[in-house]
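Hi support team,

I submitted a single chain yesterday and got back a structure, but I'm not sure I'm reading the token output correctly. Could someone confirm the output below corresponds to the sequence I sent? I've pasted both exactly as they appear in my results page.

Thanks,
R.
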Amino acid sequence: MRSTESFDYIIVGGGSAGCVLADRLSHDGSARVLLLEAGGSDSDEAIRIPAALGMLFKSEVDWNYRTVAQPEAGRTFYWPRGKTLGGSSSTNVMIYIRGNRYDYDGWRDRFHAVGWGYDDVLPYFVKSETHRRLGPPYHGKDGPLHVEDRAYTHGLSHAWLASAQQWGLEYNDDFAGRSPLGAGPFQVTCHDGRRWSAADAYLRPALSRPNLATRTRAFVTRILLAGSRATGVSYVVNGEEVTAYADAEVLLCAGTVSSPQFLLLSGIGPPDELREVGIEPRVPLAGVGRNLQDQLLVPLVWETREAGDVVLDLLTPANLARWRTSGDGPFASNYGEVGAFLSVADSGPGPDIQLTGGPTALILSGEEVPRRSVFTMNATVLNPSARGSIRLASADPRKHPLIDPRYFDDPADLRLMVKGLRAAVGIARCPPFADHLTRPYLPHSADLDHLDQADWEHHVHRWSATCYHPVGTCPMGEDEESVVNPALQVHGVDCLRVVDASVMPTVTSGNTNAPTMMIAERAADHIRPEA
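Hi R., thanks for writing in. Yes, this is the structure output for that exact sequence:
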């Protein structure tokens, strides 16, 4: 059975960007908006509990992607991505980071993304935010997205911060303020100790509007084209195939993996690649699926003297009752409690390394779990040089695409990562944090000071994991490798935009969820400037 329906705007993907657009485009009641989400509702209590995030990996709210094998590592990489209302904002580590001025000014200057410099985007960050502690000029007080200082921070995290200062880093209690440099506690997208996703912030207040239709478990199969105009989408829900027409625009908000996948399935992309899987090219666009970037997490893990691991020791029934009552205690931990932004290569004006950690295992997205109390500190190269791709495995829309981040293509990324790891070891040698450690768990070495370059590179290849920040597969710009223009309209296709992290020409310096919502806020003004 096949049915048809018509709207002004069709939003494909109910994640971070899609929720923003659903709210902003339906706000004045004059536009008919359809939001399609392949996953289900976000009603599971585990989504609300910060410290329950490990339960969400490989669950029904996770796309559970795998990359193709990365030759240097000799293995595939697990990629969790949110498959529920709110998308990855409902399953992530909740760290609120914006990147820095040099990221956005680089988009403007290097990629001709006019209107996306730092001074252009800062007002949209401020507009989106309600910050419990901070205010103008860098923070908002009346936006839909709640940001707060985490309701609980473990004693070992405080000790690590003291040691980071002893090592030489400035204390920074606002990485989204004047400068990200320094060490401090991470702010989180939480409200009263509970996860505050894009669905909480933007979608839920809009659900009662009669001009907004939201469909979950709605699996989009392709974009409909009439010549060079996008006219709607086909999707399947409850076994029924539906054709939905868009009188104004189709808005792809499906993320860095699925947005290029939908374009390719619809015949928009590199013609030779499309023909290889039996798809007739409709709009030749060489950049679709190219330019994939992702940051890596590489863990250093120490066994601790105290039995105070958040996951192993502190997620008790009593502490769950405490969180349900007051929103604080260990269940309010997001695992990545503290960290730093620093420069280890003196290669530019901004930081080149991010450190992220806390008092439990943060290893391979939960695929390695020590059976003893540990503290983990991960290093991340903020602006990796490696570029990968998303390609179709077949013309079947239900088959996951081929994800190839090519993590280790540029040796410079590996050398920089090792410098970041050595910096993390230096911090761990300083009191008071050093006084709480017994021996390393990873790398498996009694003395980290005696590991040579080859040892560290082996560690990176063996234990690195995605930092959950894939971007760039539909990049904005005006050259032949770009997919969308600065208004996020797809080159060569009318009435079709991409609005999500895939449009970033380069990855921002840090966690990407807040920048993704900013992109959607700014896009809403392009789409309906009068609303």
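A quick pointer for reading it: The mean pLDDT is 96. Let us know if anything else looks off.

Best,
Support desk
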